[in-house]
Design brief:
This protein is mainly β. It has 5 helices and 27 strands.
Length: 475
């Protein structure tokens, strides 16, 4: 699935870098393009009306080439039609699979926008559900092919944006000015404004339509949707930390280490990368400054650097050990696209476990069910095993309690365990006994095992004497 572009600036970088008309190159093989469309994109060799499929590469958009010089066409059915002819062009280059007219993107516009900003036209969202649009387009229905993405699907987000940009670059844009806008929600949700007429494929353009109302009249514009082959190759940015854990340092100690950021060597071009390093404490992220090593570039004010294919840039950093566990989190993201070949290696983290005392308590009973006779109390015996798990030199004081305040006061050396016996009389019933133990005057590194509980049951048994049995003296 194509990931959503988060910033419109990335779209315009995409346009200028990759969708510049070349007016050269070779038309991509029609047989291969059609076979791919039939196998992978839900196309058919014939339309619903029986017309054969065609691969049209004579339009202006086919002047845009990929890195290998390939030019891509449109998949249509039937023959060009519609008039009047203008500049030698017919209005349509064929039909869609469903029999809708397939717009000729080179046909002069019926109404020129005279430089109006494309994003400012109050385009109708989800036009396939809009009453005015449906009233003027009787055959419109939501594009929802079985097993394939339909109208409004985020899978079309990037290819629609690329198509709009290319449309402007080839001067076939009805006179609109296509550029960045203060309203990021429009381009950020562009797939919600475009009804798909013919979906793009790996090797073929698709088309869609957008509608807006001007002076009470409904107008539409047809836009191309870019083939996957024209999208830039995704980078594989990655990061790794020198170590994946820091242990044994005292709270307040400063630790120095290194982190690396890399771009895959087979990537065809440089990539801007956003570098981020944070110390995460109690769920809160605190930025950590990167210090370049061996000539690595200094990140700009936004955290960006440019990586060449195969580059590995190393940075040192310093952080302060906290009282409790924390972690170092490194991340790298592409700036000019939201695509990455492997998102799993765009993040690396290292745990930070400070030198700290670690006490554990475990409650045990010699039996889980006790017996009470005629409701009288029965003695219950519990054993609390208190263990010091850390290896910090020297004895420490440990304090705690069992049940209703029965005290625990111990001295423990590293790795040492001691037992505390506790007993009490229990009448019939079910009881949960709680206990806890803590190092005195300091925190514990792992609080979950500083408490424990156990449930015991005292069952009642009645001892009834036979009233006919009497005691006496035999004579």
């Amino acid at each position: 699935m194509l990931k959503r572009l988060s910033a419109i600036a990335a779209v315009f970088f995409l346009l200028t870098a990759f969708l510049t008309p070349a007016y050269a190159g070779l038309s991509f093989d029609a047989t291969t393009a059609i076979e791919d469309a039939v196998i992978n994109s839900g196309y058919s060799n014939t339309s619903k009306s029986g017309d054969s499929i065609n691969y049209i590469t004579s339009t202006g958009l086919s002047n845009i080439t990929d890195a290998n010089g390939n030019r891509y066409g449109f998949l249509t059915y039937g023959q060009p039609h519609g008039g009047p002819r203008r500049n030698g062009q017919q209005r349509y280059i064929g039909y869609t699979y469903y029999g809708e007219d397939y717009t000729n993107m080179d046909y002069p516009a019926d109404k020129n926008a005279n430089g109006t900003d494309f994003a400012s036209q109050h385009w109708i969202p989800q036009p396939w559900d809009d009453g005015a649009v449906k009233a003027n387009n009787e055959n419109i229905s939501m594009f929802k092919p079985e097993g394939k993405p339909g109208d409004g699907s985020p899978e079309y987000h990037t290819v629609i944006l690329a198509g709009i940009m290319a449309y402007g670059a080839t001067n076939a844009n009805n006179g609109y000015t296509i550029g960045e806008t203060a309203d990021g929600s429009f381009y950020g949700n562009i797939e919600q404004y475009v009804h798909i007429l013919a979906p793009p494929t790996k090797y073929a353009w698709g088309i869609g339509r957008m509608w807006h109302i001007e002076n009470g009249q409904l107008w539409y514009v047809t836009i191309p949707i870019a083939p996957e082959a024209l999208l830039p190759a995704a980078p594989d940015l990655s990061t790794n930390l020198e170590t994946n854990s820091f242990t044994g340092a005292k709270p307040g100690d400063k630790i120095t280490s290194t982190v690396a950021y890399r771009l895959n060597p087979d990537h065809p071009r440089p990539e801007r990368a956003l570098l981020r390093l944070h110390h995460v404490v109690d769920g809160q992220e605190y930025p950590v400054q990167l210090q370049p090593v061996n000539g690595a570039p200094v990140p700009d004010e936004k955290g960006y650097i440019t990586l060449q294919p195969g580059d590995v840039k190393v940075y040192s950093y310093i952080f302060t050990v906290q009282d409790g566990p924390s972690k170092i989190l490194s991340r790298v993201n592409p700036v000019d696209t939201q695509e990455d070949k492997n998102w799993d290696n765009n993040c690396a983290e290292a745990t930070v476990i400070p030198q700290s005392y670690d006490i554990k308590i475990k409650l045990q009973s010699d039996q889980s069910i006790y017996t009470s006779i005629d409701g009288d109390p029965t003695p219950v015996l519990l054993t609390a095993t208190v263990t010091r798990k850390d290896d910090i030199p020297g004895e420490i004081d440990v304090t705690g309690s069992i049940k209703d305040g029965f005290p625990i006061d111990l001295k423990l050396a590293p790795g040492e365990s001691k037992k505390v016996e506790y007993g009490y009389p229990a009448r019939p019933g079910k009881y949960t006994i709680n206990a806890e133990a803590w190092p005195v005057g300091t925190s514990d590194i792992y609080p979950p095992d500083n408490r424990d509980s156990i449930t015991i049951t005292a069952k009642n048994e009645s001892f009834n004497l036979d009233p006919t049995i009497r005691s006496g003296t035999l004579r």
